[in-house]
Amino acid sequence: MAHSLPTLPYAFNALEPHIDALTMEIHSQRHHKAYVDNLNKALDGQADLGSKSIEQLLREIKSVPDSIRQAVINNGGGHANHSLFWTIMAPGAGGKPSGPLADEITKAFGDFAALQAKIKENALGQFGSGWAWLVWDGSKLQVVRRPNQDSPLMEGLVPVLGVDVWEHAYYLKYQNKRADYVDAWWNTVNWANVAERFANAKAGK
Ligand code: MN
For residue 79, how far is its CA from the centre of ligand 1 (angstroms)? Predict the structure, then answer.
């Protein structure tokens, strides 16, 4: 079962003005595609790994042979991270979370503004390329940052929201102003999708 590039659930320009169309096109059709292609290359001939979903591969990263493990971490992580990223954003989205997710955010961070501050701190604190993540650790929500394409799934954490802070995610529009990109990015967050991810994570699905 070869992994495949998911279809973007909206047009390249759908997240404007927050994320520009050219960035979305290059990011999804070239960067994400390269992760998928290189993951498939790494898994070529590994019949026993071929049937695992990308999430399962990352959760069980220790069982991936040494010779291809780093390629799976980089490219499998890249595939999983971006597949999540496209769906936790949507046109006309943003605003605030509600329901059980909002309650859990209040419990973990105090309020939504405190979560936003913590995500920003981690997004800006990530030196070089990486991601800031909101994860479910099995008993509570946490904000973490990870370099490169390292997936929280490898540590048993379930990502429910993540912001890509690789320069390829924002450089065309925001150049060196990562903070401005992160501030604008909140306007794209698809809380319905994040709430569903949170509910599944909490239920252990
Ligand atoms: Mn990216």
Answer: 9
Q: What is the CATH number of the domain that holds 179?
A: 3.55.40.20
Cα of 82 from ligand 1 centre, angstroms: 6
Number of domains in the chain: 2
- pLDDT tens profile 162-196: 999 999 999 999 999 999 999 999 999 999 999 99
Distance 109 CA to ligand 1 centre (A): 27
Separate counts of helices (H) and strands (E) for the chain:
11, 3
Cα(28) to centroid(ligand 1), Å: 8
In a shared domain, residues 40 and 73: yes
Domain residue limits at 82: 21-87
Model pTM score: 0.97
Q: What is the distance in A from the centroid of ligand 1 to the CA of 160?
A: 17
Interatomic CA distance for residues 58 and 155, integer angstroms: 9
User: Is residue 140 a part of any domain in this protein?
Assistant: yes
Contacts for 106 with CB less than 8 Å, ≥ 6 apart: 112
